[in-house]
């Protein structure tokens, strides 16, 4: 009886220690692989100025996550529910902090939701496939004049599910 009890206590502790050790080993090896992958494979002295400018533009924009949203699209025989996680890119850190505040982020989120509801009443969200890039451009064009610093509206995730009406 004492052997079984000691196995029930010692075995989980040994497995936990082994898992911790293997996890530590795997995380350090993946960090080293990431550092190796980040280094350029061909270290030439020539640089493309256009590529450097594009990378600088990417570093200047910040993504502000606005949360998840559910948009119902009512059809004759079904209801399509679109679940999306929204975000916006802003031009600088000041605007990112501004839209991270609850009240300001809610206003921006409500404006995007209103545009999505208008799209749900039209043809943009009714097809078998939804062009999220076009939808993002359309919503961005409507939101940009009202909200300073917003560069682009992003769909971080986008799911669509049809439910038959009974």
Report on the structure:
With 166 residues, this protein is of the alpha+beta class. The protein is built from 5 helices and 3 strands; from the N terminus they run ααββαααβ. Residues 29-47 have low confidence and may be disordered.
Strand and helix map with partners:
Blueprint: H1 2-38, H2 49-60, E1 62-74, E2 78-90, H3 93-100, H4 102-121, H5 132-143, E3 150-164
Antiparallel strand pairs: 1-2, 2-3
Helix pairs in contact: 4-5
Brief digest:
The protein has five helices and three strands, in the order ααββαααβ. The protein starts with a helix and ends with a strand.
Task: List how many beta strands DSSP finds.
Answer: 3
Q: State the end-to-end distance.
A: 60 Å
Strand content: 15-25%
Task: Give the overall silhouette.
Answer: flat
Helicity range: 40-55%
Strand order, main sheet: write it out. Answer: 1-2-3
The H-and-E topology, N to C, reads as: HHEEHHHE
User: What is the C-alpha radius of gyration, as a whole number of Å?
Assistant: 25 Å
Structural class: alpha+beta
Query: Which residues sit in consecutive blocks of at least 5 with pLDDT less than 50?
Result: 29-47
Structure keywords:
three-stranded antiparallel beta sheet, 54% helix, alpha+beta, 25% strand, 166 residues
């Amino acid at each position: 009886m004492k052997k079984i009890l000691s196995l029930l206590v010692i075995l989980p502790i040994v497995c936990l220690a082994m898992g911790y050790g293997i996890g530590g080993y795997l995380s350090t090896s993946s960090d080293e692989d990431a550092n190796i992958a980040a280094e350029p494979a061909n270290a030439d002295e020539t640089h493309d100025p256009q590529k450097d400018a594009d990378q600088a533009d990417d570093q200047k924009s910040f993504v502000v996550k606005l949360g998840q949203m559910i948009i119902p699209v009512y059809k004759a025989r079904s209801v399509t529910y679109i679940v999306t996680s929204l975000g916006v890119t802003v031009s600088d850190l000041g605007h990112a902090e501004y839209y991270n505040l609850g009240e300001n982020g809610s206003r921006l989120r409500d404006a995007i939701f209103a545009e999505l509801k208008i799209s749900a009443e039209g043809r943009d969200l009714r097809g078998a496939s939804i062009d999220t890039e076009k939808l993002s451009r359309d919503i961005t064009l409507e939101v940009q004049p009202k909200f300073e610093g917003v560069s682009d509206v992003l769909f971080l995730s986008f799911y669509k599910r049809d439910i038959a009406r009974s």
